[in-house]
Automatic annotation (TrEMBL):
Keyword Oxidoreductase: yes
Cofactors that this protein relies on: FAD
Domain called FAD dependent oxidoreductase: residue spans: 21-387
Protein name stated in the entry: FAD dependent oxidoreductase
Protein species of origin: Acinetobacter gerneri DSM 14967 = CIP 107464 = MTCC 9824
C-alpha cells in the first residue's frame, strides 16, 4: 500500500486548506455578486474578506440603485444596471436583502435645469425609461415638505429606480453566499497572491495559503497590499467623499431626491441638447473644486442620508480622514435654500473612498496569469456591479 502520510504532513506544514475553482478577494458588492454568480455556474468558490463584514464603499453609500441616470442609456453600463437589478430581484424573491422599488425625484431650480429634464423625459421612453414631468404646481401639491427659498422650475420623476439599505445589503448577501455553499473567510487579510506552476494561490497574514484555478481581486480603495506598483501605474485616483446622516425625518419619503447639481453630474442627461449649456453654466467654486452634487435618501429608520462631494488624490498620497467643514455647510445651505427641506439634526458624518479613473469606466488588469485586479468602478458598484461582474466572469473565468 502506498504511503501518502507525507502529503498530509506537507499540507499541515504549509497550511494549504482547500482547492477552489475561484478565489475572490474582497466581500464588497463586486466580490459578493461575482461569488454568487460563479457558484450558480457550478464553480467551487471561496471569498476572503479582511474585515468581519463588508465595511467600505458597499456600506458607506446612499443605497440608491439608479438604473435610469447613472449611465448613458445606450451604453453597456446601462445594461449592466438592468442586469444588476435582475440579480437583486432574484435573490430578494428568496430572502430579504432590502431591495425595493424607489423612484427618483430630480429637482430643477433653474430654467436650464428644467429644460434638460424636459428633454430627457421626451427621450426616455425610447430607452424603456418611464418618467413623469412635473410642473411647479404639481410638485408643490405632491411634495409639500419641499419649500425652497425660490420657486422650483419643475421636476422629473424617474420610475425605474430602486433602493437597498446600505447597512444591510452587504451583510445579507454575505449570509446568502454562505447559505448557498460558498466558502466565506472573514477577518483575514490576503497579503500576497501569486501563480505558481499554473496554480493561483492566496496567502493570508496568518500564513495560511489557499489555492485555486483563478483569482479575482475586488480590492475597492485598498491599494497598498496587493500589486501596489501596478495600481499606481494604472492612472487610477482615490476619490474621497463626504456624507452625513440625520436623525429621523418627520414623515416617510417615498422617493430618493436628486438636486439640480446631480443633473449636471449624471451621464444619462448627456443625451439632452441643453446639457452642454448646463454643464458650462457657472457654478460656485466649491462645487467645481470638490465635485459637489446633493442627494437625499431616507433609510428604513426614517433617517436621511445626505451628501456628497468628490475629491481626487493620487494613489500613494497621504489619505485624508477629516472632513472639510465648508463642504458640510454648503450642503446644508443648499438643502435649505434650493431643495427646501427642513433637515433634522445631523447625527453622524463620515468619509468614504473608492477608486476612479479619469478616462476609463473601470479597470480590469491581469496582474499574473489567471489573477485579475478589478479596479476603479467609481461609485457605480451598487447600481451596476452584478451586471459588470457577470461579464467579467464570462470573459475571464468561465
Amino acid at each position: 500500500m502506498l504511503d501518502f502520510s507525507w502529503f498530509e504532513k506537507f499540507k499541515v506544514e504549509n497550511k494549504v486548506k482547500a482547492q477552489f475553482d475561484l478565489i475572490i478577494v474582497g466581500a464588497g458588492i463586486l466580490g459578493l455578486s461575482a461569488a454568487i454568480q460563479a457558484q450558480e455556474h457550478g464553480l467551487k468558490v471561496c471569498i476572503i474578506e479582511k474585515d468581519a463584514e463588508p465595511n467600505a464603499a458597499t456600506r458607506r453609500n446612499f443605497g440608491m440603485v439608479g438604473t435610469s441616470t447613472l449611465a448613458k442609456p445606450e451604453t453597456k453600463w446601462h445594461k449592466y444596471a438592468l442586469k444588476t437589478c435582475e440579480f437583486y430581484k432574484k435573490i430578494q424573491d428568496k430572502t430579504d436583502i432590502s431591495f425595493q422599488k424607489r423612484s427618483g425625484l430630480y429637482l430643477a431650480n433653474t430654467e436650464l435645469e428644467f429644460n434638460v429634464l424636459k428633454e430627457f423625459s421626451e427621450s426616455a421612453a425610447a430607452y424603456g425609461i418611464a418618467s413623469q414631468l412635473l410642473s411647479p404646481k404639481m410638485l408643490n401639491n405632491r411634495f409639500d415638505y419641499l419649500r425652497p427659498k425660490y420657486d422650483f422650475e419643475g421636476a422629473l420623476i424617474v420610475e425605474n429606480d430602486y433602493s437597498v439599505e446600505p447597512h444591510l445589503i452587504g451583510l445579507r448577501l454575505l449570509d446568502y453566499a454562505r447559505a448557498v455553499g460558498i466558502e466565506v473567510i472573514t477577518n483575514s487579510s490576503v497579503i500576497k497572491t501569486f501563480n505558481e506552476s499554473g496554480v493561483c494561490k492566496a496567502k493570508l497574514a496568518n500564513s495560511e495559503c489557499y489555492s485555486s484555478s483563478k483569482i479575482l481581486i475586488c480590492h475597492g480603495a485598498t491599494v497598498d497590499i496587493l500589486y501596489p506598483d501596478l495600481l499606481k501605474q494604472s492612472g487610477a485616483k482615490i476619490c474621497t467623499l463626504q456624507m452625513a446622516l440625520t436623525k429621523p425625518f418627520h414623515q416617510r419619503l417615498d422617493m430618493s431626491i436628486y438636486s439640480g447639481l446631480s443633473i449636471v453630474r449624471y451621464p444619462a442627461f448627456e443625451i439632452c441638447p441643453s446639457y452642454v449649456a448646463l454643464q458650462q453654466n457657472e457654478q460656485p467654486n466649491l462645487v467645481k473644486d470638490y465635485g459637489i452634487h446633493i442627494l437625499i435618501k431616507q433609510n428604513e429608520f426614517g433617517e436621511l442620508i445626505i451628501g456628497d462631494s468628490h475629491e481626487y488624490d493620487e494613489i500613494g498620497d497621504t489619505p485624508r480622514y477629516e472632513q472639510r467643514e465648508e463642504i458640510n455647510q454648503f450642503i446644508l445651505q443648499y438643502c435649505s435654500e434650493n431643495i427646501g427641506i427642513n433637515l433634522p439634526e445631523i447625527s453622524k458624518r463620515w468619509t468614504g473612498s473608492y477608486l476612479s479613473h479619469p478616462e476609463k469606466m473601470a479597470l480590469v488588469t491581469e496582474a499574473e496569469p489567471n489573477i485579475y485586479l478589478i479596479s476603479a468602478i467609481a461609485g457605480k458598484g451598487m447600481t451596476t456591479g452584478a451586471g459588470f461582474m457577470q461579464e467579467i466572469l464570462e470573459q475571464k473565468i468561465f
